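for the writeup, i need someone to sanity check this before i put it in the appendix. the sequnce is what the collaborator sent (i think, or maybe the updated version? ugh). structure was predicted straight from it, no edits. if anything looks off just tell me and ill rerun, i have time this weekend
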Amino acid sequence: MSDPREVRFRGGGFAPSARRGVGLVVFVVLIALAEWGTRSGFITPLTLPKPSDVLATFGELWQSGLLMKHLVPSLTRLLVGAALGVSIGMSVGVLIGLFSYVRAGLVPLVAALFPIPKIALLPLFVIWFGIDEGSKYALIAFGTFTPTVVATYGAVDNVDRSLIRMGQSFGLSWFSIVRKIVLPGAMPGILSGLRISLAIAIILLVAAEMLGAEYGIGAYILQAGSLYDLERLFAGVVILSLLGVVVSTCIGLLEKRMLRWRA
């Protein structure tokens, strides 16, 4: 009879473990390969600028003050538009998930609005709200509204019904069940949808700023592209990429704080 073998405890399930620094290593390797390729001539200057030149462009933008002139208006438009779209979208999504009459009335409308390319509506928003900030806020808000609604009421629908029945059996009120069971149970799906909504918001921000904006990351990229200035163009693209990383990191921190019960 063989000796008993100890089995490693795996009670953590499929919870992902943190691997700090791996993402940074991937970025560094890709940038190093791009620098080597452009310096060796394997990649032509007309295809990709040297990362070192893009970094030098960042330094010029910072020293001249243009970086903040373009970044501050973009962040303001993104925050205002996304806040409007996400807050209204979450509210409508929760109402659709909780009330049958609201679901029957609004789900067909949301299904009709969701597949419309939001960028195609930019001229219409300019007619309605003018060429100034109103049309940009409206486009970003509308673009984040529909995916947030879909993600929110889908997350509410996916809450375990046995937990709701358990709350009812303990005599909890309707409001208590919603506050203590439905909303916490739906929060993982809502936050996952928020990642997508904010990524869409950044895309629509660039599109809105390419039409009638003097300052902003989108306007900066449009100016660089019209001059075929690849260093400035890629500097603008990197700013958008970093903005996306910051947004994703903030949502990740929010998930850790609000979803500690899943650990």
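The chain has a mean pLDDT of 86. The radius of gyration is 24 Å.
thx in advance!!
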